C-alpha cells in the first residue's frame, strides 16, 4: 500500500529529503541502507502497465481502401491492413444484409513484383490461381455452402475473372469471385507487380446477377510509387481506321452495315365494357332467378322521345 498511488517528481524530491534528513541521525550502516532505498522508490513510482498486441494488422480509414465498391454497392464498414516489405494486403469489410454467418468482404493484395532479401517472414507472395486453392478459400470463408463454379467466361475492366455461386441453408444467394491482375507478358528484369482480388458476398434479397455486378463495377484506387510497377500491361492499341480519311464512324443504328436496333411500338387497345341496358320492369312482374353468368346484357336502343310520367334528368354542364 506504500506505492499504490502514482507519484511525481515533487514526491520523489520530498521522499529523498525526508530520507536524507533521517539518515544523518543514523550510524554508518543505517545511513548507507537509507541511500539504497532511494532507487527503489524511483522504480516503484515510474512503473507503468503496458499492453502489447500480437497481430500485425491495423485499421485504416475507409478512404484508404485499395478496392472501392461501385456507386450504390455495399458500403465499406472497416479496412484492416497489413504492410509487407514488397506490398500490402487488406481485408475490406462490407455491409452485410443476410442471415448467413460470416462477413461480406473484399480480400485484396498488392505486390510490387520484386522479392527483397529478408531474414524475417515479411514478404508478400501471390501464388497463381489454382482450383484446389480456390476451393480451400471457399470452404474457409463460406463454410457449409455448396458452391458451383461457373464455366461462363467473364471479364471486367481489369481482365478475366472467375466466380462461383451457391445458396446457403437460410436461403441467401452467395457469390465468391477471384481475379489476378498482372501483365500479359512477364518481365524478368523489371517486374510489373500483381494484384490479387477475392470477393465474398451473401445477400438475402439479391440475385446472383445483381451480386456479380460488383465485380464489373469496382475500381482500384491504389498504386505503387515505383516507376516499373504496372500490373495492367500495355494499353490497347488505337483502331487503325481512327482519324483516317474515308473511314466514317457512325453512331449505333445509323450505319447500314452495323446491326440496327428495332424498337417495336407497343399498341394497347382499350376494351370498353358496355353498360348493362336499363329495362323498365313493372312492380307486379316476377322474373325467374338467373345466374350472373347466364345474363347477357342486351344492346341499348336509342330512345326517340322521353317517356312520360318520369322526371327529366338535366344534362351535365358543358366545360
Can you tell me about this structure?
Strands 1, 3, 4, 5, 6, 7, 8, 9 and 10 form a nine-stranded antiparallel sheet that branches. Strands 2-11 form a two-stranded antiparallel sheet. Among the domains are: 37 residues; 163 residues. The chain has four helices and eleven strands, in the order H-H-E-E-E-E-E-H-E-E-E-E-E-H-E. The longest helix is centred in the first third of the chain and has 18 residues. With 319 residues, the protein is an alpha+beta fold. It starts with 8 loop residues before the first helix and ends in a 99-residue tail after the last strand.
Topology of this structure?
Layout: H1 9-23, H2 28-45, E1 58-60, E2 67-68, E3 76-83, E4 87-94, E5 105-111, H3 131-141, E6 148-149, E7 154-156, E8 159-167, E9 173-181, E10 194-203, H4 208-217, E11 219-220
Antiparallel strand pairs: 1-3, 2-11, 3-4, 4-5, 5-10, 6-8, 7-8, 8-9, 9-10
Helix pairs in contact: 1-2
Amino acid at each position: 500500500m506504500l506505492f499504490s498511488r502514482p507519484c511525481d517528481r515533487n514526491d520523489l524530491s520530498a521522499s529523498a529529503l525526508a530520507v536524507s534528513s533521517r539518515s544523518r541521525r543514523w550510524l554508518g550502516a543505517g545511513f548507507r541502507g537509507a541511500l539504497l532505498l532511494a532507487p527503489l522508490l524511483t522504480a516503484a513510482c515510474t512503473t507503468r502497465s503496458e499492453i502489447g498486441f500480437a497481430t500485425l494488422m491495423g485499421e485504416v480509414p475507409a478512404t484508404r481502401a485499395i478496392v472501392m465498391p461501385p456507386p450504390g454497392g455495399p458500403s465499406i464498414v472497416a479496412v484492416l491492413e497489413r504492410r509487407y516489405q514488397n506490398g500490402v494486403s487488406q481485408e475490406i469489410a462490407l455491409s452485410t444484409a443476410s442471415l448467413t454467418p460470416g462477413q461480406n468482404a473484399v480480400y485484396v493484395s498488392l505486390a510490387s513484383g520484386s522479392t527483397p532479401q529478408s531474414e524475417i517472414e515479411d514478404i508478400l507472395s501471390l501464388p497463381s490461381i489454382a482450383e484446389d486453392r480456390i476451393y480451400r478459400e471457399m470452404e474457409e470463408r463460406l463454410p457449409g455452402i455448396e458452391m458451383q463454379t461457373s464455366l461462363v467466361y467473364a471479364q471486367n475492366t481489369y481482365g478475366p475473372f472467375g466466380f462461383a455461386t451457391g445458396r446457403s441453408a437460410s436461403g441467401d444467394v452467395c457469390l465468391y469471385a477471384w481475379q489476378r491482375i498482372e501483365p500479359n507478358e512477364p518481365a524478368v528484369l523489371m517486374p510489373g507487380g500483381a494484384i490479387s482480388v477475392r470477393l465474398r458476398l451473401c445477400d438475402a434479397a439479391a440475385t446472383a446477377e445483381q451480386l456479380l455486378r460488383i465485380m464489373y463495377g469496382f475500381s482500384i484506387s491504389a498504386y505503387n510509387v515505383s516507376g516499373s510497377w504496372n500490373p495492367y500491361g500495355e494499353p490497347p492499341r488505337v483502331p487503325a481506321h481512327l482519324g483516317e480519311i474515308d473511314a466514317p464512324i457512325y453512331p449505333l443504328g445509323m450505319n447500314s452495315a452495323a446491326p440496327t436496333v428495332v424498337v417495336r411500338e407497343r399498341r394497347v387497345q382499350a376494351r370498353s365494357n358496355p353498360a348493362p341496358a336499363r329495362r323498365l320492369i313493372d312492380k307486379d312482374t316476377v322474373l325467374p332467378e338467373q345466374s350472373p353468368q347466364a345474363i347477357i346484357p342486351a344492346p341499348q336502343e336509342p330512345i326517340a322521345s322521353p317517356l312520360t310520367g318520369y322526371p327529366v334528368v338535366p344534362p351535365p354542364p358543358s366545360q
